[in-house]
Design brief:
The chain contains 7 helices and 11 strands. It is α/β, with parallel strands linked by helices. The strands form 2 sheets. A 5-stranded mixed barrel has the order 7-10-9-8-11, surrounded by 5 helices. Strands 1-2 form a two-stranded antiparallel ribbon. The radius of gyration is 17 Å and the shape is globular. It binds 1-O-phosphono-alpha-D-ribofuranose (R1P) and uracil (URA). Uracil binds next to strand 7, strand 10 and strand 11.
Length: 242
């Protein structure tokens, strides 16, 4: 019998979504993670080509699905996964631009918190500012996983921008001056959504370019080569799943 469950943007037929989902922005990075690391991966979503897969990793069920680019897309998919598919935790696995001098190309960054120029979090109604923060237990598991894998991950705040192409350099300059390790486009949206849904989230990033040195990786590298980040995320997910 065909079992189907559907939300506005996800349609799952004869498959299921695990309690924990890894989410790269790029759906082809999701496909790569599924094919490289999951046993018996099953594709559970193709709506809008936002590919999602469920398989097992060291005997535990884990899903991986694209989030698309930017806070609105991440917020939409994370909300549906948390509220309509009973997902407990999401780990973003993204690329990011290095901001500070201590961060280098291909470094793995674990986002403790995310400042942002987005007003997305205002909708949740807290007077002042709802701070987008990682789940501490997941963060601690990620740090331990990185240490065990010999990955020198850097932990700190990142900056989530609504703009990939900002017309001036001042936002990145200020974010760098205030100690943000990297700039990207989804982490604050994920952390706000997790808070609003009473769920868990963590963002792990790989430096794909450096805003102040001008170094940059190719699109193909961004899709397929971030294996340290993928392995830290999978080990973290494995520790977080019962
Ligand atoms: O590599 P992903 O996860 O897509 O993340 C980064 O890459 C995209 C921009 O190229 C934005 O989504 C940004 O956050
Ligand atoms: O959002 C992003 C992602 C990678 N590199 C950047 O400069 N910005």
């Amino acid at each position: 019998m065909t079992k189907t469950s559907v939300s506005a943007s996800i349609s799952v037929k004869d498959a299921e979504i695990a309690k924990i989902v890894l989410m790269p922005g790029d759906p082809l990075r999701a496909k790569h993670v599924a094919e490289r690391y999951l046993e018996t991966p099953v594709c559970f979503n193709t709506v809008r080509n936002m590919l999602g897969y469920t398989g097992t990793y060291k005997g535990k069920k884990i899903s991986v699905m694209g989030s698309g680019m930017g806070i609105p897309s991440m917020g939409l998919y994370a909300t549906e996964l948390y509220t309509q598919f009973d997902v407990d935790a999401i780990i973003r696995i993204g690329s990011a631009g290095g901001l500070v001098d201590e961060v280098h190309m291909r470094d793995v960054v674990i986002a403790m918190a995310a400042s942002s120029n987005s007003s997305y979090g205002d909708a949740f109604g807290l007077p002042g500012h709802l701070t987008p923060v990682a789940n501490y237990g997941m963060l601690a598991n990620a740090v331990e996983s990185a240490q065990q894998l010999g990955v020198h991950a850097k932990v700190g705040p990142v900056y989530t921008s609504d703009h990939f192409y900002y017309p001036t350099t001042e936002v990145n300059d200020k974010a760098r001056e205030l100690g943000h390790l990297a700039v990207e486009m989804e982490t604050a949206g994920l952390y706000w959504t997790a808070a609003a849904c009473h769920k868990k989230a963590l963002s792990i990033l790989t430096i794909s370019d450096h805003i102040y040195t001008g170094e940059a990786l190719s699109a193909e590298d961004r899709q397929e080569s971030f294996h340290e980040m993928m392995e830290v995320a999978l080990e973290t997910a494995w520790r977080c799943v019962e």
